[in-house]
Specification:
alpha+beta; seven-stranded mixed sheet; four-stranded mixed sheet; about 35% helix; binds adenosine-5'-diphosphate; binds magnesium ion
């Protein structure tokens, strides 16, 4: 590689003193070694420039997002994230890009007490693969735990990130403030780790909304052997989305990906407790429907329902 070599990049941007005593060997040897107790939750996600984010996205946001989507997967099973690996494929070495990328990555890692324990650095098209390892909850949240009659809830708001994509082509100075707000949601998703951990043992099923609400709730339905009714007027929509895209807000919320909110199901009697927990964490949660014994997903408005077709993001 031109500029600083592979090892200099690793030393300069990614090697920090591990504060976690469970990390016996971190970056710098052939493999990381960590001390574990009990069961691990493990996930990995790749972000490819041009497919998962616009290549010109702020590098701090790319660093944040690469870790956030993985933290979101652990949140969805109610695990406590602890260690991450980072495989970075770069077209060229741009030191200010690397600096900002590392800053975005570590700011989020520090906020969640996650230690970077290893990775790989190669030349190629810009792509980032993060692996995440954490302590599993004693009763992990699974997609398969839903039961007919469960209430369906989601955290935060839906559709903002999908709506943001159409605004990247506009020069920042030309964008309305609401578009900046949507882009911020896309660039800096907030993984709902604390909520997921608090829901483990309480919620019946959960998933993080990465491919779109209908696609992801559809996974819960299929794996739980249920269907669902979604109250269309209850979907949590942000003011920015409603102001900028009043006509398309609902379809962004149903079918747009990249929200990284949690969608989960709970017994009706536990909804109050879930609301208290979420309020304590400062995270909005909204009841958007219920699981049904009849399979398939339906949208409800007032007294009428109609079938909903899951058209989430499909990679192939
Ligand atoms: P090896 O050739 O044995 O696979 P490398 O030379 O690729 O090892 O990496 C040297 C050390 O730096 C290893 O500990 C590896 O985990 C770590 N590493 C490489 N790239 C990164 C990165 N982008 N982020 C964090 N650690 C990295
Ligand atoms: Mg290697």
């Amino acid at each position: 590689m031109d500029g600083p070599g592979e090892f200099e990049i690793i030393a300069r941007y990614f090697t920090r003193r591990a504060l976690d005593p469970a990390v016996r060997v971190g970056i710098g040897d052939d493999a990381a070694i960590v001390a574990t107790e009990g069961e691990l939750a493990i996930a990995v996600d790749t972000l490819v420039a041009g497919t998962h984010f616009p290549p010109a996205l702020d590098p701090a946001a790319i660093g944040h997002r690469a870790l956030a989507v993985n933290l979101s997967d652990l949140a969805a099973v109610g695990a406590r994230p602890r260690w991450a690996t980072l495989a970075l494929s770069l077209r060229s070495v741009d030191t200010s890009w690397l600096e900002a990328f590392a800053q975005g990555f570590f700011r989020l890692a520090d906020a969640h007490g996650v230690t970077l324990i290893g990775g790989d650095t190669t030349r190629g098209e810009l792509a980032i693969t993060v692996g995440i390892f954490g302590d599993s909850a004693p009763a992990p949240l699974l997609r398969s735990g839903g039961r007919a009659g469960d209430r369906v809830l989601v955290s935060g708001t839906l559709g903002d990130s999908a709506a943001a994509l159409g605004h990247f082509a506009t020069a920042p100075a030309q964008r309305p403030p609401e578009a900046e707000e949507l882009i911020r949601r896309f660039a800096y998703p907030e993984p709902r780790v604390a909520l997921g951990r608090a829901l483990a043992g309480l919620a019946h099923a959960a998933i993080d909304v990465s491919d779109g609400l209908l696609a992801d709730l559809g996974h819960i339905c299929r794996q739980s052997g249920c269907g669902a009714v979604v109250d269309l007027d209850a979907l949590p929509l942000s003011p920015a989305l409603l102001n900028l895209h009043p006509e398309r807000a609902e379809s962004f919320a149903l079918s747009g990906g990249d929200d990284y909110e949690l969608c989960f199901t709970v017994a009706p009697r536990d909804v109050g407790q879930v609301r208290e927990i979420a309020a304590g964490l400062g995270t909005a949660v909204t009841e958007i429907g219920e699981l049904t014994a009849e399979t398939g997903m339906r949208g409800r408005r007032g007294d009428t329902t109609h079938p909903l077709v899951a058209t989430g993001y499909v990679h192939f």
